[in-house]
Structure prediction request, 678 residues.
Amino acid sequence: MKRTFTVCPYCGTGCMFYLLSDGNRLVGVEPSRNHPVSRGGLCVKGWNAFSFVGHPDRLTVPLVRKDGELVPVSWDEALARVVSGLRSVQGRYGKDSIMFASSAKATNEENFLLMKLARRVFGTNNIDHCARLCHSSTVVGLAETFGSGAMTNSIDCIDKADLIFVIGSNTTEQHPLIGTRIINAAKRGAKLIVADNRVIRLARHADSHLRHKNGSDVALLSGMMQVIISEGLENRAFIDSRTEGYHEFAESVREWTPERAASFTGLSAAEISDAARQYAAAGSAMIFYSMGITQHTHGVDNVRCIANLAMLTGNVGREGTGVNPLRGQNNVQGGCDMGALPDLYSGYQKVADPSVRLKFEKAWGGALLPATPGLPLTLAMNAAARGDLKGMFIMGENPLISDPDQAHVLAALQSLELLVVQDIFLTETAQLADVVLPAACFAEKDGSFTNTERRIQLLKKAVEPPGEAKADWEIICGVAAAAGFYGMKYENTSGIMAEIASLTPIYAGVSHRRLPLAGLQWPCTDADHPGTPILHRERFSRGLGKFVPVTYRPPAETPDDAYPFVLTTGRTYFHWHTGSMTRRTHLLDREENRAFVEMNPDDATKLGIKGGERAVVSSRRGEITVFTKLTDVVPPGVLFMPFHFAEGAANALTNNELDPESHIPEFKVSAVRVRRAG
Prediction:
């Protein structure tokens, strides 16, 4: 039996384990005792990460739509169809009439190559990935305030924190091993503040549980900062030596008394004041957040407030401190790092900068590269629905289930003249495609992933892919060659990483040779650099940290008489993303196998709804039928629904209103109504 040391394909925690294989069949998983992240542990999804790999639903041959049906074809025919289709669309409507969607499930090397394919081969900056739906608010907000849109500290810093503030993150469900570390820290004496209106598991261990209204984070954080300033609890030495813009910011929160903040959040003034004093009094305090903060029409403002709070108290640049966004998918951080973004090359180098473009042009054969930033993925979907975007190449994502307002997404995808989907299963999105390209999964290829703490780790091939399926990087190179571009020929993925390092300053010292066991945390600027566990130690990436004043804005849609409930969405412990992998894992699907809505018993009683029966939940965008789960975890007036289940798709209901700066949708607040089914 062979043991292959590799990276878990699920959340952004970045656990590593051994895949156990017998011949070309995976039979199990064994955790790594020595790995600095997983430290001998795994969550239930990690323990079962081998199970979906050999599922009979795996795609094994290319498919092309003929006479309305997807039929098997050769690779040559499929690639020729992709290239001719994209070229045809561009010939009739212009180079920016097509869109490339990269993947947080693909490796760094593959995200880099799809970015290169879009820009160098097809001449468009229309390249983006699912960070647009989860952490684009972080990239914008932290880049502005700190100069780097990434987690500032390491997971190990949890062990050094005096206080941990978790807001907008159901950590034990979405990042279980990090959640366990936080619980262990609380047990050893660290204070824990949890801001979430659901009684999540972490709340049961918290010193303070702030059950604020969905979408009122700016009011809560502004109220906390007003208390800190008015009571003289701010860190003046840090503010004076390390930041700018303080006085304008301080004036902007002066009116946010605890009483005023309480009127917006539904909390008491005493709760807000107490949380502020606890945070300010801690010698070292960490903030953790996730999509409960980012997925709002004011998501960037939420992130700005978190950065302001950390700088106000000097909780940046030291062990046990920092602003720590938790990435939802295994390589969301890497997808951003690799330039799968419409305005940035790898390493967050701007496409609008002539010197940056010149560097990439020289490396990629001299052809001029487009200078105008492309479309974010959410705006591209809107453009497709309007008929302005005509072709789309989607690698490893399932937007029909993951994007907001499912009817809108369906109309957008159906309006395209060409839809190409590259994936491991025939997902709901792939079923709509004109061309389907069968890809290898994480266990069947080499490369690297970058976890939530910026740790670049080596992915190793354990078994061969099924049938004619190929690694994403091989397929991308095949598309380039079919298009007549031969500057994407690589013997292996280490050669791709060498090119990444040569063009990307924060990855300049990274090579596959240096990554076994613990990996490296960027920035890693040369071959002797040890990596950077903590950012902004002596200075911020932008020089001085920048305080940014924020104005409170309510959610785009609030409850009314017609739609009296607030719907919020998220994940469960047993499933992940759109369920394409976990729902093909027997043990996980056995534990959670049907769509449901959490509802407070008081609300259910008023509506005559019993636990376990079917209910119809509807919004202004659609309706679905799901099973009810009555629980005090949600407060009255609030419903919670996971988005993993295609047969009860939560995103049939969610709102496609976007943050004006990051273009992230407002998944976390939608107005809905509910009634008994039948």
